[in-house]
Amino acid sequence: MAPKDLSLHHLIRPSANTEGTSAALIMMHGYGSNEEDLFSFAPEMPEDLFVISLRAPHPLQPFGYAWYAINFEAEKGKWNDTAQAVESREAILHFIGEATTAYNLDPSRINLLGFSQGSILGYALALSYPERIRTLVALSGYLDPSMLVAGFESKKHEDLEIYASHGQADMVIPPAWAQKTAASLKQLGLSHVYEEYPVGHGVSMENFRSFLQWLTPRY
Predict the structure, then answer these.
(1) What's the CA angle centered on 105, arms 89 and 51, to 5 degrees?
(2) pLDDT tens digit string along 72-125?
(3) Are 10 and 36 in contact (CB under 8 A)?
């Protein structure tokens, strides 16, 4: 099956399920990468999952894509273009609606996996619209409250489950930011797991096996 012409460019690995709707895993890459990066996970995913790897909408020079702009020269560290992030959050939500129809997906079994900037967008989407997301695997990211919809705290998050992990030697996104996120999720009463690994800004094989083991019985 070739990818349909939807609002965001993407790659797919169809589900082996040929009857009824399928659970889906929507993957979002990091800043400066593309849809092929996380798609390398697809062959290892459960066969009955419909895997979709998205390309972010903003091209970067000389190559790669971003979900929103980052000013690395800003004072007090990196500055995120929150308006662009919110636009991307809504673009992904719209895409999920399109893909649910186009690929016969189960709307109650939509799962997210994001790395770095894609992980930050994953938090924004899952916490803003918990009624639309089953699980979130958040790799090397953190929660940015400015990217959430107003009043997200009052939404029903009891059915949303989150797996988060971070590299202890991450020089791109400090582990302290991820640790703070874990504390915030606990305050919201969300079911979540947080793990750290002795790596930098990346995903080790041990990390991969752990989140896959976590995800498999939940999607």
Answers:
(1) 70
(2) 765 555 688 999 999 999 999 999 999 999 999 999 999 999 999 999 999 999
(3) no
In angstroms, the CA 47 to CA 42 distance is 9
Q: Which helix (H) or strand (E) holds 149?
A: none
Write the burial class of residue 60 (CB in 10 Å: 0-12 exposed, 13-18 middle, 19+ buried).
middle
At 35 the three-state DSSP class reads: helix
**The pair of three-digit structure tokens given for residue 76, joined into one six-digit string:** 């007090």
Return the axis-axis angle of helices 82-102 and 117-128, rounded to nearest 10°: 70
Instruction: Using the structure block, give the residue that is written with the tokens 């009052």.
Output: 154
Whether the Cβ atoms of residue 52 and residue 12 lie closer than 8 Å to each other: yes
What are the backbone dihedrals phi and psi of residue 33, each rounded to the nearest 5 degrees, phi first?
Answer: -105, -160
Type of residue found at 58:
H
Q: Which of 181, 189, 44, 26 is nearest to 115 (CA)?
A: 26
* Cα separation, 119 vs 137, whole angstroms: 8
Residues, the chain: 219
Helix locations, 81-150, DSSP H: 82-102, 117-128
Q: What is the mean pLDDT of residues 202-213?
A: 97
Interatomic CA distance for residues 209 and 44, integer angstroms: 10
